[in-house]
Amino acid sequence: MAYRFGLALILIGLISLMVFAVTYLNQEGDVRTLLLGASLCALGLMIRRRIARRNRIETGRFRIFRRTSERYPEEE
């Protein structure tokens, strides 16, 4: 659910950046629209990365090595 919310924030941010670009070409650009679009995109990307990092699927590669290193942790 949060992954889709982050995706929606990115989409809304990109739309507001496009609105800024169109209004800027007409010499009526508002800096608040630029800041809103950029901040929504950044917030959406942060949410998506956090969720993706949490749901990362572990591959089967080097499975045996990981098991042996978990059994015998290095003492420091």
Short description:
The chain contains 3 helices and no strands.
Structural class: mainly alpha
Overall tally of structural domains: 1
Q: What does the average pLDDT come to?
A: 85
SSE pattern: HHH
- Report on the biggest sheet: none
Number of strands: 0
In angstroms, what is the radius of gyration?
21 Å
How many DSSP H or I helices?
Answer: 3
Describe this structure in words.
With 76 residues, the chain is mostly helical. It has one domain. The protein is built from three helices and no strands. α1 packs antiparallel against α2. The longest helix is centred in the first third of the chain and has 24 residues. The chain is rod-shaped, with a radius of gyration of 21 Å. The model has no long low-confidence stretch (mean pLDDT 85).
Question: Could you give the topology of this structure?
Answer:
Layout: H1 2-25, H2 31-54, H3 63-71
Helix pairs in contact: 1-2
Please describe the structure with a list of short key phrases separated by commas or semicolons.
mainly alpha; 3 helices; 76 residues
